[in-house]
Write a structure and sequence with these properties.
Length: 418
């Protein structure tokens, strides 16, 4: 089927111009059929096809486009360019990581695309993004088997499950968008620290409800365990956010402050568990179903802290572990595996001790569980907002002493490539 040159405008007329066929008299055939009389359709079929032409079908455009191929680069996604350590400002550099850095003024789209590109942050992103879905799946399974709305005994577990889904997702987002600017990098990690701090509060709420030793139930520590944990979250978030300010001038001091900010609430949350383990050393422990999972959790928690503080193995072989195998990736994996064992231990204690705890202590209250979480969220957001405002009001380059032109702009990079 081909178009006659002189009748092409008539073929491509829209609905409002169909009357031209009637008023214009004999204007010639709408289309010309190729292949001879044998290939010509019947009169009724030709009328139907001409009606389709009159109804606004761009037959000429469709025929002219038949057989064309798209340019080879039309469907190609250009991934962001990567840089070496000497090409990025100091605030973006990591100990022992030589290559694989993203542009320090990346767009949000570039940050998302970089998660599908092998950079020194790619594994960091996925080692916390994928576990988020695992914990969400476990949460949905618990929602189908437990009555979180009406059974107050399950409220500590509800808070805990929400927070173990929140902290890896926040960490994944922080690693994804931390290369948009120096200020965005700090704010992303402020939020990351806040989520980890709230996770420690969730641990305290569940440990106070399910893990507390029998002899400590209804004691002063038991009654004030959650309020102290709320205060600990403020200390943790405040110290960890503050540690980013002296990081360039005093990196070792910054690392000590940040590590201590997270170790302190961890030690406090696990005081009941440490006492139960000491009782087991004296052969007088009870509720041993969960103790093996608790021990596995403590082992991976120790590995997490060690990897976070030591920057091994990349310190021993700089450049060898830029993309796979550096300490922060291993730190993420150990943290997630440790959280899995902690979740299993909490579920075991919750199930095995329910009868005894319900008979000897008051049931968890809404203010002591969901209410404490709400207060913790508001106070932590206030601290993060305060540090973010201080960061944005600081003089330019206060936290990033390298000049703005230290890294070539995207336009300059494109000109260099051409």
């Amino acid at each position: 089927l081909s178009l006659g040159r002189q009748t092409a405008p008539s073929v491509q007329m829209g609905l409002g111009q169909r009357s031209a066929f009637r008023q214009g008299g004999r204007r010639g055939p709408c289309v010309r059929w190729e292949g001879g009389p044998a290939c010509r359709p019947s009169l009724g079929e030709r009328q139907v096809r001409c009606s389709a032409c009159q109804a606004g079908a761009r037959l000429g455009q469709a025929c002219r486009g038949r057989g064309r191929r798209l340019p080879p680069d039309m469907l190609t996604i250009k991934l962001p360019q990567l840089f070496d350590i000497h090409q990025v400002p100091r605030v973006f550099r990591e100990d022992g990581i030589i290559s694989g850095y993203r542009h320090p003024r990346s767009s949000a789209l570039d940050c998302i695309l970089s998660s599908f590109q092998m950079t020194n942050e790619t594994v960091n992103i996925w080692t916390h993004f994928l576990p988020t879905w695992y914990f969400l799946w476990r949460f949905t399974m618990l929602c189908s088997s437990l009555d979180f709305l009406n059974e107050s005994y399950t409220w500590p577990l509800l808070v805990y499950m929400v927070l173990i889904c929140l902290y890896p997702f926040t960490s994944s987002c922080a690693h994804t968008f931390s290369s948009m600017s120096a200020e965005a990098r700090h704010i992303c990690y402020f939020l990351d620290y806040g989520a980890l701090s709230l996770y420690s509060l969730g641990c305290a709420i569940t440990y106070g409800a399910y893990v507390m030793p029998d002899c400590w139930v209804n004691s002063w520590l038991h009654q004030n365990f959650v309020p102290i944990a709320v205060l600990n979250t403020l200390i943790c978030t405040g110290l960890s956010c503050y540690s980013r300010f002296p990081e360039l001038d005093f990196p070792h001091w910054s690392k000590v402050v940040r590590t201590g900010a997270f170790v302190y609430p961890f030690l406090f949350d696990n005081i009941p568990l440490f006492y139960r383990l000491l009782l087991c050393l004296g052969d007088s422990c009870s509720h041993t179903e969960a103790l093996s999972s608790h021990c596995h959790h403590l082992l991976f928690a120790f590995l997490t802290c060690f990897l976070f503080a030591s920057h091994l193995p990349e310190r021993l072989a700089p450049g060898r572990f830029d993309y796979i195998g550096h300490s922060h990736q291993l730190f993420h994996i150990c943290a997630v595996v440790g959280t899995h064992f902690q979740m299993e231990a909490v579920l075991a204690d919750m199930s095995s001790r329910r009868g005894w705890l319900s008979a000897h202590s008051a049931l968890p209250s809404f203010p002591g569980t969901v209410g404490a979480l709400g207060v913790g969220i508001l106070l932590n957001l206030a601290i993060i907002g305060l540090f973010s405002a201080t960061l944005l009001w600081a003089p330019n380059g206060a936290l990033s002493p390298c000049p703005p032109n230290h890294v070539p702009s995207p336009r300059r990079l494109e000109q260099k490539e051409k």
